[in-house]
Amino acid sequence: MILLANPFAAGSISLQLSFAATLGLVWLSPKLYRNLSRFYTGTSRAVRWAVNFLCANMSASVSALVFTIPLTAIYFNILTLTAPISNLLAVPAAGWNFMAGFVTVLAGFVWLPAARVLGWVCFGLVRYVLWVAGVLASAPGHAVYFSNGFLKYWLLYVYAMFGGCLLTRDRRRKYAVAGVLAAVTLALAVGLNTGLHQYGDLSVMALDVGQGESVALYTREKAVLVDCGEGTQIGIQRLSWGIQCIDAILLTHYHADHCSGLPGMLLAITKAGRTAPLHIYGPIGLERVVAGLRVIAPSLSCPIVLHEIIDDYSPFAAIGLTITPFPLRHEMPCIGYQFHLPRPALFDPIRARAQEIPVKLWSILQRGETVSMDGQTYYPHQVLGQPRRGITFVYATDTRPVPGIVRMGQDSDLMILEGMYGAEEKLPLAHKNCHMLFREAAQLARDAGTKRLLLTHFSTSIETPEEFLPNAQAVFPETTCATDGMTLTLRYPEEA
Asked: What residues contact 161, with CB distance under 8 A and at least 6 apart?
């Protein structure tokens, strides 16, 4: 009837989800309930009632999920693993809350004090549902995201496997085997994707290349964010790195597309239960901006440590990186960042043996740690040779070309620069708004001698950035346009 009245309603996501869930409840739920309820063969009425209650809720939840998961994967790129548990815990309370709310409204017309008491009951049920949702949402691995390419194949495999079980006899045993295989292959798919992101020395991911700018850097199981545009926390969750791994947030300037996602990120960190301090760096005005943004995120689980960069552009350290800020030229105070991942010097066993350093201390000294044994102190420089070349990465956006970009990007492994405008006729606009053309960014990369240039932060007027890519590649051939979710892994150079 809905489609007869409005055929375009078929495109409604909510309608599709509703029909899919209803189909699962009508067709699959009774079958699951019958199979689950058979496992209890006792005679106790109380236990039987509890078993039936659990089986009814579990079968309804799973049945709805079976038919809605493909749609949530397509539209929202997410699979919530805790959904069956949350439904089991929260749905009964939500049902009771609906009935209590209805009675509360009726009681309000008859006797207001009774309605107030019932209102507190509704309040308690709502708080319980929110508490369940919050606890499960903060649980590690509560959801996986289909930005992980392996998950798409896993989903097809699981549906094909359970479909095969449905068409064969002796299905109960096969369902159990299929469930175990589904769990094992899911863990494998997530593990492969995590390893893909974590392997190497320094992973750089563009979370948004449009008007919600953010770049994530990951090394040694820790991460820093450069800028925090709207929805950055969603991009982080899709990485399978976890919110807890973020040690610092570096802001380039305070335009909304670079910092408006900070409240959402802070709330996500709080939901994850973080207690370790979170460091935030930014140009002059940092305290005022963060205080303003925190109006909608007042209660946090961890302390926030602010580092305002005004005139002192001295290097600082985070997650094993040496980070050097430098000034850019924009409509407001704006800074870029150079990231350097140093490489430990090569261990020299000949020197270690010559100094009679115990072998069991070699690995400690090789890590750069000082160690004492039998009243004698040993230092890393005693066993390490000459320093080796590390990894250097530069990020500079929302700026006109300045000499500092070339200086900081000298012989770097990667530069991420803005490509706000592609066409040459946009040069006056670039001057006016303090942005760069594709060609200008490429000239900076060429002059710096970097290995690779990644263009990002495109104007909303550019529908296909690749259209203007030849303008940059004519100057610097190793130029690429970034895409949302693009990950580059920078590794130490091979030893000669």
From this structure: 178, 181, 182
The label of the residue with tokens 């496997």 reads: 161
Domain boundaries, the chain: 11-195, 199-345+386-490
> Apex CA 45: angle with CA 39 and CA 51, to 5°?
35
Residue 55, C-beta contacts closer than 8 angstroms, at least 6 positions apart:
32, 33, 36, 37
The residues that bridge with 224 in the sheet, in sequence order, are 217, 248
Q: Which residue's entry shows tokens 């303090």? A: 434
Among residues 438, 452, 444, 478, the alpha carbon closest in space to that of 393 is found at: 452
Q: What is the mean pLDDT of residues 435-442?
A: 96
Q: CA 188, CA 102: separation in Å to the nearest integer?
A: 47
DSSP secondary structure of 218-252: EETTEEEEE---TTHHHHHHHTTS-GGGEEEEE-S
Q: Please report how the helices 83-110 and 112-137 are oriented relative to each other, as an axis angle in degrees rounded to 10.
A: 170
Instruction: Find tokens 């175990």 and name the residue.
Output: 180
- Whole-angstrom distance, CA of residue 58 vs CA of residue 87: 8
pTM of the model: 0.68
Burial class (CB within 10 angstroms; exposed 0-12, middle 13-18, buried 19+) of 308: middle
- SS3 state at 490: strand
For residues 420 and 405, is the Cβ–Cβ distance under 8 A?
no
Interval 90-108: pLDDT, tens: 888 888 888 999 999 999 8
Length of the chain: 496
Mean pLDDT of all residues in 205-228: 82
CATH of domain 199-345+386-490: 3.60.15.10
Q: Quick one: pLDDT band at residue 195, thresholds 50, 70, 90?
A: low
Q: Name the residues annotated as catalytic.
A: 257
378 within 8 A of 361, measured Cβ to Cβ = yes
The arithmetic mean of pLDDT across residues 152-165, rounded, is: 86
Angstrom distance (rounded) from CA 480 to CA 496:
28
> For the residues 64-79, what does the mean pLDDT come to?
81
Structure tokens given for 51: 């078993």
Dihedral pair phi/psi, residue 95, rounded to 5°: -65, -45
Which stretch, 297-301, 315-319, 474-478, has highest mean pLDDT?
474-478
CA 44/CA 263 separation, integer angstroms? 52
User: Taking 80 as the threshold, does the pLDDT of residue 188 lie above it?
Assistant: yes
- Residue 151 tokens read as 């998950």
